[in-house]
Amino acid sequence: MRSIIITGATSGIGRELAIQYAAKGDKVGLIGRRTERLEELKAEIGELAYVRTLDVTDHERAEVVYRELIDEMGGMDVMVLNAGIGRIQMLPPWRAESKLIEVNSLAFAHGCHFAFDYFREKGGGQIVGMSSMASLLYNHRAAAYTASKHFISVYMTGFRQKARRIEADITITEIRAGYIWTEMTERAKGMFWVAPVEKAVRQMVKGIDKKKNYIYVTKRWRLLAWVVKCIPEWVWNRI
Ligand SMILES: NC(=O)c1ccc[n+]([C@@H]2O[C@H](COP(=O)([O-])OP(=O)(O)OC[C@H]3O[C@@H](n4cnc5c(N)ncnc54)[C@H](OP(=O)(O)O)[C@@H]3O)[C@@H](O)[C@H]2O)c1
């Protein structure tokens, strides 16, 4: 039985990860801002679920909450940094972008630091980052979101190198997800190859358990990733 902490567990991918891991018999520590959703999920999962309401951008409180959860769960083996937001329609453009960067990049980096230090002290563990196919793209319609996922990808590579250099048994797993049906994508247009969340998370769990460095979800996105990596910079500058 492992102990897995998941940020952004109140809906979509995080919620489904919690359900699938609990079904395998693992303990799941669930984090999000919506307390009632966390309580509902705890009622559904039962005693394997441990919940805490937290805004991951509050770094000081996050440290306390992560430690509380770890103590309550008797340790942590995997930390899934999944919390993220897309475009916030109600805010003026710059406020929306700075909020997105704060959640998707800064709070991600904070979680990654926390987990890395904890696992180094403990002697091993796994950090899973919810990146995206966007980490390989450049998109003027969603520059902040795309950049936030590039950040996650580059940051995780740095931590993977660091783990290797200091010979720490820490696996750094980046999930490059394509489109998945969740609350984040429910009003999005122009999507293709959209996967149901249950199927996408089943593939994520498989890859995480195999301790992969990169997981493409669903699998066919690996093909597109290969094509995208061949696109020269001058083409991106003309799109
Ligand atoms: N759906 C896709 O097609 C897709 C594709 C690639 C990557 N992703 C990534 O997958 C991750 C999950 O997205 P999703 O599709 O499952 O969307 P979602 O259903 O909207 O879930 C987002 C989760 O993040 C949490 N969250 C947002 N801001 C937070 C904050 N400040 N503090 C704590 N938790 C916060 C939300 O919880 P609260 O609102 O309760 O705080 C929610 O549980 C995101 O990082 C997203 O970028 C999604």
From TrEMBL:
It holds the Pfam family adh_short. Gene3D superfamilies: NAD(P)-binding Rossmann-like Domain. Keywords: Oxidoreductase. SMART domains: PKS_KR. It comes from the Bacteria. The keyword Thylakoid does not apply. PANTHER family: DEHYDROGENASE/REDUCTASE SDR FAMILY MEMBER 7B, SHORT CHAIN DEHYDROGENASE FAMILY PROTEIN. This is SDR family NAD(P)-dependent oxidoreductase. It comes from Gracilimonas halophila.
